[in-house]
Design goal:
alpha/beta; Aspartate Aminotransferase, domain 1; Aspartate Aminotransferase, domain 2; 37% helix
Amino acid sequence: MSGDQGLEAARALDDADPMSGWRREFHFPDGPGDRAVAYLCGNSLGLQPRGVVAEVSRVLADWQRLAVLGHHGGSAHWLTYQDSLAPPLGRLVGAAPAEVTAMASLTINLHLLMASFYRPARKRCAILIEAGAFPSDRYAMSAQLRHHGRDAAEALVQIAPRAGESILREEDIEAAIRREGDRLSLVLLPGVQYLTGQCLDVARLARVTHEAGAMFGLDLAHAVGNVPLALHDWNVDFAVWCSYKYLNGGPGATAGLFVHARHHDTDLPRLAGWYGNELKTRFNFDERFVPERGAAGWQVSNGPILGMAPLRASLDQFDAAGLDALVARSRRLTAYLESLLDAHLGKELEIITPRAAGARGAQLSLRARRGRDAGRALFARLMAAGVICDWREPDIIRLAPAPLYNSFEDCWRCSEALRQP
Protein backbone atom coordinates (compact mmCIF):
# COMPACT_ATOMS: atom_id res chain seq x y z
CA MET A 1 0.00 0.00 0.00
CA SER A 2 1.22 3.51 -0.71
CA GLY A 3 0.17 7.15 -0.50
CA ASP A 4 -0.56 9.33 2.53
CA GLN A 5 0.36 7.47 5.73
CA GLY A 6 -0.86 10.00 8.28
CA LEU A 7 -3.60 9.63 10.90
CA GLU A 8 -6.31 11.25 8.82
CA ALA A 9 -5.53 8.91 5.94
CA ALA A 10 -5.89 5.92 8.28
CA ARG A 11 -9.23 7.22 9.51
CA ALA A 12 -10.36 7.76 5.93
CA LEU A 13 -9.57 4.12 5.16
CA ASP A 14 -11.69 3.07 8.14
CA ASP A 15 -14.57 5.33 7.09
CA ALA A 16 -14.54 3.87 3.59
CA ASP A 17 -14.41 0.24 4.75
CA PRO A 18 -17.87 -1.41 4.90
CA MET A 19 -16.51 -4.00 7.37
CA SER A 20 -15.33 -1.45 9.93
CA GLY A 21 -18.69 -1.50 11.72
CA TRP A 22 -17.92 -4.90 13.24
CA ARG A 23 -15.56 -3.13 15.64
CA ARG A 24 -18.59 -1.85 17.57
CA GLU A 25 -19.61 -5.44 18.33
CA PHE A 26 -16.68 -6.00 20.72
CA HIS A 27 -15.61 -4.93 24.17
CA PHE A 28 -12.13 -3.37 24.35
CA PRO A 29 -9.94 -3.33 27.47
CA ASP A 30 -9.03 -0.08 29.18
CA GLY A 31 -6.02 1.81 27.88
CA PRO A 32 -3.52 3.97 29.80
CA GLY A 33 -5.08 7.11 31.18
CA ASP A 34 -8.08 8.13 29.09
CA ARG A 35 -6.70 6.72 25.85
CA ALA A 36 -8.40 3.94 23.95
CA VAL A 37 -6.38 0.79 23.54
CA ALA A 38 -5.11 -0.50 20.19
CA TYR A 39 -5.54 -4.24 20.67
CA LEU A 40 -3.25 -6.21 18.36
CA CYS A 41 -3.17 -9.41 20.41
CA GLY A 42 -5.99 -11.48 18.93
CA ASN A 43 -3.51 -14.23 18.09
CA SER A 44 -3.17 -14.77 21.85
CA LEU A 45 -6.65 -13.96 23.16
CA GLY A 46 -9.50 -12.53 21.11
CA LEU A 47 -11.74 -9.77 22.40
CA GLN A 48 -15.17 -10.45 23.89
CA PRO A 49 -18.06 -10.17 21.43
CA ARG A 50 -20.95 -8.12 22.78
CA GLY A 51 -23.33 -11.02 22.18
CA VAL A 52 -21.54 -13.22 24.71
CA VAL A 53 -23.34 -11.87 27.77
CA ALA A 54 -26.75 -12.61 26.28
CA GLU A 55 -25.79 -16.15 25.26
CA VAL A 56 -24.24 -17.01 28.64
CA SER A 57 -27.22 -15.42 30.41
CA ARG A 58 -29.56 -17.59 28.36
CA VAL A 59 -27.77 -20.73 29.53
CA LEU A 60 -27.78 -19.52 33.14
CA ALA A 61 -31.49 -18.75 32.92
CA ASP A 62 -32.24 -22.23 31.59
CA TRP A 63 -30.18 -23.78 34.39
CA GLN A 64 -32.05 -21.67 36.95
CA ARG A 65 -35.49 -22.37 35.49
CA LEU A 66 -35.16 -25.96 34.32
CA ALA A 67 -32.24 -27.56 36.18
CA VAL A 68 -31.69 -31.07 34.78
CA LEU A 69 -34.56 -30.67 32.32
CA GLY A 70 -32.39 -28.17 30.43
CA HIS A 71 -30.64 -31.08 28.76
CA HIS A 72 -33.78 -31.72 26.74
CA GLY A 73 -35.62 -28.39 26.78
CA GLY A 74 -35.18 -24.67 27.14
CA SER A 75 -33.58 -22.49 24.51
CA ALA A 76 -30.47 -24.60 23.98
CA HIS A 77 -31.06 -28.34 24.55
CA TRP A 78 -27.76 -28.98 26.32
CA LEU A 79 -27.60 -32.61 25.27
CA THR A 80 -26.96 -31.55 21.68
CA TYR A 81 -25.63 -28.03 22.26
CA GLN A 82 -22.29 -28.83 20.64
CA ASP A 83 -24.11 -29.99 17.49
CA SER A 84 -25.22 -26.41 16.83
CA LEU A 85 -21.55 -25.38 16.65
CA ALA A 86 -20.60 -27.97 14.02
CA PRO A 87 -22.07 -26.25 10.91
CA PRO A 88 -20.33 -22.86 11.48
CA LEU A 89 -17.10 -24.60 12.50
CA GLY A 90 -17.30 -26.71 9.36
CA ARG A 91 -17.66 -23.57 7.26
CA LEU A 92 -14.56 -22.06 8.88
CA VAL A 93 -12.33 -25.09 8.34
CA GLY A 94 -13.71 -26.32 5.03
CA ALA A 95 -15.43 -29.47 6.26
CA ALA A 96 -18.83 -31.08 6.51
CA PRO A 97 -20.58 -30.65 9.89
CA ALA A 98 -20.13 -34.37 10.57
CA GLU A 99 -16.35 -33.97 10.28
CA VAL A 100 -16.01 -31.50 13.16
CA THR A 101 -17.01 -31.20 16.78
CA ALA A 102 -16.44 -28.78 19.65
CA MET A 103 -14.92 -30.38 22.73
CA ALA A 104 -12.22 -30.26 25.39
CA SER A 105 -8.98 -28.33 24.74
CA LEU A 106 -6.42 -28.42 21.94
CA THR A 107 -3.79 -30.63 23.55
CA ILE A 108 -6.36 -32.99 25.08
CA ASN A 109 -7.89 -33.37 21.63
CA LEU A 110 -4.45 -33.93 20.14
CA HIS A 111 -3.78 -36.78 22.56
CA LEU A 112 -7.22 -38.29 21.92
CA LEU A 113 -6.69 -38.25 18.17
CA MET A 114 -3.15 -39.55 18.46
CA ALA A 115 -4.68 -42.68 19.99
CA SER A 116 -6.35 -43.21 16.63
CA PHE A 117 -3.88 -41.78 14.15
CA TYR A 118 -0.48 -42.56 15.63
CA ARG A 119 -0.18 -46.33 15.32
CA PRO A 120 3.55 -47.06 15.22
CA ALA A 121 4.68 -50.27 13.65
CA ARG A 122 8.08 -51.92 14.09
CA LYS A 123 9.81 -49.68 11.56
CA ARG A 124 7.18 -47.03 10.75
CA CYS A 125 7.25 -45.10 14.02
CA ALA A 126 8.67 -41.60 13.39
CA ILE A 127 6.75 -38.34 13.86
CA LEU A 128 7.74 -35.24 11.90
CA ILE A 129 7.14 -31.73 13.32
CA GLU A 130 8.65 -28.31 12.78
CA ALA A 131 11.63 -27.53 15.01
CA GLY A 132 9.96 -24.37 16.33
CA ALA A 133 6.67 -26.06 17.19
CA PHE A 134 4.63 -24.62 20.02
CA PRO A 135 5.84 -26.37 23.20
CA SER A 136 2.52 -28.10 23.87
CA ASP A 137 2.72 -29.93 20.54
CA ARG A 138 6.29 -30.97 21.23
CA TYR A 139 5.40 -32.20 24.72
CA ALA A 140 2.45 -34.17 23.36
CA MET A 141 4.48 -35.80 20.60
CA SER A 142 7.30 -36.71 22.96
CA ALA A 143 4.83 -38.12 25.48
CA GLN A 144 3.14 -40.22 22.79
CA LEU A 145 6.46 -41.61 21.67
CA ARG A 146 7.38 -42.55 25.24
CA HIS A 147 3.91 -44.06 25.72
CA HIS A 148 4.63 -46.38 22.79
CA GLY A 149 8.09 -47.22 24.07
CA ARG A 150 9.94 -45.07 21.53
CA ASP A 151 12.89 -42.75 22.05
CA ALA A 152 12.00 -39.17 21.09
CA ALA A 153 15.64 -38.46 20.31
CA GLU A 154 15.42 -40.96 17.46
CA ALA A 155 11.75 -40.96 16.46
CA LEU A 156 10.95 -37.23 16.58
CA VAL A 157 12.05 -35.69 13.27
CA GLN A 158 12.32 -31.89 13.39
CA ILE A 159 12.44 -29.61 10.36
CA ALA A 160 14.02 -26.19 10.88
CA PRO A 161 14.52 -23.13 8.66
CA ARG A 162 17.82 -23.00 6.85
CA ALA A 163 20.77 -21.30 8.52
CA GLY A 164 20.24 -17.54 8.57
CA GLU A 165 16.54 -17.84 7.67
CA SER A 166 13.39 -17.59 9.80
CA ILE A 167 10.80 -19.25 7.58
CA LEU A 168 10.38 -22.92 6.78
CA ARG A 169 10.89 -23.86 3.14
CA GLU A 170 8.17 -26.20 1.99
CA GLU A 171 10.57 -27.96 -0.35
CA ASP A 172 12.67 -28.82 2.71
CA ILE A 173 9.63 -30.24 4.52
CA GLU A 174 8.70 -32.23 1.44
CA ALA A 175 12.26 -33.54 1.09
CA ALA A 176 12.30 -34.62 4.73
CA ILE A 177 9.00 -36.48 4.35
CA ARG A 178 10.33 -38.32 1.30
CA ARG A 179 13.65 -38.99 3.02
CA GLU A 180 12.02 -40.56 6.08
CA GLY A 181 9.87 -42.69 3.75
CA ASP A 182 8.72 -45.92 5.32
CA ARG A 183 10.04 -44.86 8.74
CA LEU A 184 7.43 -42.13 8.97
CA SER A 185 4.12 -42.72 10.77
CA LEU A 186 2.77 -39.20 11.27
CA VAL A 187 3.37 -35.63 10.11
CA LEU A 188 2.00 -32.93 12.44
CA LEU A 189 2.36 -29.35 11.25
CA PRO A 190 0.77 -25.97 12.01
CA GLY A 191 -1.75 -24.36 9.70
CA VAL A 192 -0.08 -21.09 10.67
CA GLN A 193 3.23 -21.18 12.53
CA TYR A 194 2.67 -19.38 15.84
CA LEU A 195 6.00 -17.54 16.07
CA THR A 196 6.52 -16.39 12.49
CA GLY A 197 2.95 -16.26 11.19
CA GLN A 198 3.88 -18.41 8.19
CA CYS A 199 0.95 -20.15 6.47
CA LEU A 200 1.88 -23.51 4.93
CA ASP A 201 0.68 -25.11 1.71
CA VAL A 202 -1.30 -27.81 3.46
CA ALA A 203 -2.66 -29.56 0.37
CA ARG A 204 0.83 -30.08 -1.02
CA LEU A 205 2.27 -31.40 2.24
CA ALA A 206 -0.70 -33.68 2.93
CA ARG A 207 -0.33 -35.20 -0.54
CA VAL A 208 3.39 -35.88 -0.06
CA THR A 209 2.75 -37.35 3.39
CA HIS A 210 0.17 -39.78 2.06
CA GLU A 211 2.47 -40.78 -0.78
CA ALA A 212 4.97 -41.72 1.92
CA GLY A 213 2.32 -43.88 3.62
CA ALA A 214 1.94 -41.71 6.73
CA MET A 215 -0.92 -39.85 8.43
CA PHE A 216 -1.18 -36.05 8.21
CA GLY A 217 -2.45 -33.87 11.08
CA LEU A 218 -2.67 -30.14 11.75
CA ASP A 219 -2.55 -27.81 14.71
CA LEU A 220 -4.88 -24.98 13.65
CA ALA A 221 -4.59 -22.84 16.80
CA HIS A 222 -3.41 -19.82 14.77
CA ALA A 223 -5.22 -20.68 11.55
CA VAL A 224 -8.89 -21.24 12.41
CA GLY A 225 -10.87 -18.04 11.92
CA ASN A 226 -7.76 -16.44 10.44
CA VAL A 227 -6.97 -17.96 7.03
CA PRO A 228 -8.99 -19.89 4.42
CA LEU A 229 -9.06 -23.62 5.16
CA ALA A 230 -10.30 -26.60 3.13
CA LEU A 231 -9.49 -29.57 5.34
CA HIS A 232 -11.75 -32.04 3.55
CA ASP A 233 -10.56 -31.14 0.04
CA TRP A 234 -6.93 -31.00 1.18
CA ASN A 235 -7.32 -34.60 2.41
CA VAL A 236 -6.09 -33.82 5.93
CA ASP A 237 -6.53 -36.85 8.20
CA PHE A 238 -7.19 -34.93 11.41
CA ALA A 239 -6.84 -31.48 12.93
CA VAL A 240 -7.22 -29.79 16.31
CA TRP A 241 -7.60 -26.16 17.35
CA CYS A 242 -8.31 -23.89 20.28
CA SER A 243 -11.08 -21.28 20.19
CA TYR A 244 -9.79 -18.38 22.27
CA LYS A 245 -7.53 -16.71 19.69
CA TYR A 246 -9.04 -15.55 16.40
CA LEU A 247 -12.32 -17.33 17.22
CA ASN A 248 -12.90 -15.03 20.24
CA GLY A 249 -14.40 -17.81 22.37
CA GLY A 250 -12.96 -16.52 25.66
CA PRO A 251 -10.09 -17.66 27.91
CA GLY A 252 -9.86 -21.44 27.95
CA ALA A 253 -12.75 -21.72 25.47
CA THR A 254 -13.95 -25.12 24.31
CA ALA A 255 -11.70 -26.31 21.50
CA GLY A 256 -12.47 -28.34 18.40
CA LEU A 257 -11.30 -31.18 16.18
CA PHE A 258 -11.68 -32.48 12.65
CA VAL A 259 -11.65 -36.08 11.44
CA HIS A 260 -11.86 -36.66 7.69
CA ALA A 261 -14.98 -38.47 6.53
CA ARG A 262 -12.99 -41.35 5.07
CA HIS A 263 -12.08 -42.40 8.63
CA HIS A 264 -15.64 -42.36 10.00
CA ASP A 265 -16.57 -45.91 9.06
CA THR A 266 -13.25 -47.52 9.92
CA ASP A 267 -12.28 -49.54 12.96
CA LEU A 268 -9.68 -47.04 14.12
CA PRO A 269 -9.10 -47.46 17.86
CA ARG A 270 -10.08 -44.55 20.06
CA LEU A 271 -10.14 -43.56 23.72
CA ALA A 272 -13.90 -43.83 24.04
CA GLY A 273 -16.28 -42.15 26.45
CA TRP A 274 -20.02 -42.12 27.05
CA TYR A 275 -20.63 -38.92 25.10
CA GLY A 276 -19.04 -40.45 22.02
CA ASN A 277 -21.60 -43.24 21.98
CA GLU A 278 -24.38 -42.82 19.43
CA LEU A 279 -27.16 -40.66 20.83
CA LYS A 280 -30.00 -43.02 19.94
CA THR A 281 -28.63 -45.74 22.26
CA ARG A 282 -26.66 -43.63 24.73
CA PHE A 283 -29.31 -43.78 27.42
CA ASN A 284 -29.64 -47.54 27.16
CA PHE A 285 -26.38 -47.64 29.16
CA ASP A 286 -25.18 -50.69 27.22
CA GLU A 287 -21.80 -52.21 27.89
CA ARG A 288 -20.87 -52.12 24.20
CA PHE A 289 -19.62 -48.80 22.82
CA VAL A 290 -21.22 -47.80 19.51
CA PRO A 291 -19.60 -44.58 18.29
CA GLU A 292 -21.67 -41.68 17.06
CA ARG A 293 -21.08 -41.24 13.36
CA GLY A 294 -18.47 -38.67 12.42
CA ALA A 295 -16.13 -36.60 14.53
CA ALA A 296 -18.68 -36.60 17.34
CA GLY A 297 -17.76 -40.23 17.91
CA TRP A 298 -14.42 -39.04 19.33
CA GLN A 299 -16.14 -37.11 22.11
CA VAL A 300 -15.40 -38.41 25.57
CA SER A 301 -17.37 -36.35 28.07
CA ASN A 302 -20.36 -34.04 28.03
CA GLY A 303 -19.42 -30.55 26.93
CA PRO A 304 -19.13 -27.51 29.22
CA ILE A 305 -22.23 -25.58 28.15
CA LEU A 306 -21.13 -22.36 29.85
CA GLY A 307 -17.76 -22.72 28.12
CA MET A 308 -19.36 -23.20 24.70
CA ALA A 309 -21.87 -20.36 24.98
CA PRO A 310 -19.35 -17.57 24.18
CA LEU A 311 -18.12 -19.57 21.20
CA ARG A 312 -21.66 -19.84 19.88
CA ALA A 313 -22.01 -16.05 20.02
CA SER A 314 -18.69 -15.63 18.22
CA LEU A 315 -19.50 -18.11 15.48
CA ASP A 316 -22.70 -16.20 14.76
CA GLN A 317 -20.50 -13.19 13.99
CA PHE A 318 -18.26 -15.15 11.63
CA ASP A 319 -21.29 -16.43 9.76
CA ALA A 320 -22.77 -12.94 9.49
CA ALA A 321 -19.53 -11.30 8.36
CA GLY A 322 -18.40 -14.11 6.04
CA LEU A 323 -14.92 -15.57 6.10
CA ASP A 324 -14.07 -14.47 2.55
CA ALA A 325 -14.80 -10.83 3.40
CA LEU A 326 -12.86 -11.10 6.65
CA VAL A 327 -9.83 -12.61 4.92
CA ALA A 328 -9.89 -9.81 2.33
CA ARG A 329 -10.03 -7.20 5.09
CA SER A 330 -7.31 -8.99 7.04
CA ARG A 331 -5.01 -8.78 4.05
CA ARG A 332 -5.69 -5.06 3.65
CA LEU A 333 -5.00 -4.35 7.33
CA THR A 334 -1.85 -6.47 7.46
CA ALA A 335 -0.50 -4.96 4.24
CA TYR A 336 -1.18 -1.46 5.57
CA LEU A 337 0.66 -2.14 8.82
CA GLU A 338 3.50 -3.70 6.83
CA SER A 339 3.76 -0.59 4.64
CA LEU A 340 3.98 1.69 7.70
CA LEU A 341 6.70 -0.42 9.28
CA ASP A 342 8.67 -0.58 6.04
CA ALA A 343 8.41 3.15 5.46
CA HIS A 344 9.28 4.33 8.94
CA LEU A 345 11.08 1.51 10.75
CA GLY A 346 12.77 -0.60 8.08
CA LYS A 347 16.21 0.18 9.48
CA GLU A 348 15.21 -0.80 13.02
CA LEU A 349 12.92 -3.77 12.50
CA GLU A 350 12.97 -6.94 10.42
CA ILE A 351 9.60 -8.44 9.51
CA ILE A 352 10.15 -12.20 9.56
CA THR A 353 6.58 -13.08 8.50
CA PRO A 354 6.28 -13.94 4.79
CA ARG A 355 5.49 -10.99 2.54
CA ALA A 356 3.03 -12.79 0.26
CA ALA A 357 -0.58 -12.38 1.39
CA GLY A 358 -1.38 -16.05 0.81
CA ALA A 359 1.57 -17.18 2.92
CA ARG A 360 0.45 -15.48 6.14
CA GLY A 361 -2.64 -14.55 8.13
CA ALA A 362 -3.40 -11.59 10.39
CA GLN A 363 0.06 -11.41 11.93
CA LEU A 364 3.39 -9.68 11.54
CA SER A 365 6.31 -10.91 13.62
CA LEU A 366 9.08 -8.39 14.19
CA ARG A 367 12.69 -8.70 15.26
CA ALA A 368 14.76 -5.69 16.29
CA ARG A 369 17.90 -5.47 14.19
CA ARG A 370 19.90 -4.27 17.21
CA GLY A 371 19.13 -7.40 19.22
CA ARG A 372 16.91 -8.72 21.99
CA ASP A 373 17.35 -5.84 24.45
CA ALA A 374 16.31 -3.34 21.80
CA GLY A 375 13.32 -5.53 21.00
CA ARG A 376 12.24 -5.65 24.64
CA ALA A 377 12.50 -1.87 24.82
CA LEU A 378 10.30 -1.49 21.75
CA PHE A 379 7.77 -3.91 23.19
CA ALA A 380 7.66 -1.95 26.45
CA ARG A 381 7.15 1.25 24.44
CA LEU A 382 4.17 -0.26 22.65
CA MET A 383 2.52 -1.44 25.84
CA ALA A 384 3.07 1.92 27.56
CA ALA A 385 1.39 3.63 24.60
CA GLY A 386 -1.69 1.40 24.90
CA VAL A 387 -0.79 -0.83 21.96
CA ILE A 388 -1.41 -4.33 23.34
CA CYS A 389 0.61 -7.01 21.55
CA ASP A 390 2.84 -9.82 22.77
CA TRP A 391 6.44 -10.86 23.12
CA ARG A 392 7.65 -14.36 22.29
CA GLU A 393 11.07 -15.59 23.23
CA PRO A 394 13.75 -15.27 22.24
CA ASP A 395 13.31 -11.94 20.43
CA ILE A 396 9.96 -11.61 18.64
CA ILE A 397 7.21 -8.98 18.86
CA ARG A 398 3.95 -10.28 17.40
CA LEU A 399 1.29 -7.92 16.03
CA ALA A 400 -2.09 -9.30 14.96
CA PRO A 401 -4.52 -6.94 13.19
CA ALA A 402 -7.67 -9.07 13.52
CA PRO A 403 -10.19 -8.11 10.82
CA LEU A 404 -13.36 -8.31 12.93
CA TYR A 405 -12.36 -5.57 15.35
CA ASN A 406 -9.08 -3.92 14.42
CA SER A 407 -8.84 -0.73 12.39
CA PHE A 408 -6.41 1.06 10.13
CA GLU A 409 -6.08 3.61 12.91
CA ASP A 410 -4.94 0.83 15.27
CA CYS A 411 -2.19 -0.03 12.80
CA TRP A 412 -1.20 3.63 12.50
CA ARG A 413 -1.04 3.99 16.30
CA CYS A 414 1.20 0.96 16.50
CA SER A 415 3.61 2.36 13.96
CA GLU A 416 3.63 5.76 15.66
CA ALA A 417 4.35 4.22 19.06
CA LEU A 418 7.33 2.34 17.64
CA ARG A 419 8.65 5.54 16.04
CA GLN A 420 8.58 7.61 19.24
CA PRO A 421 11.90 7.82 21.11
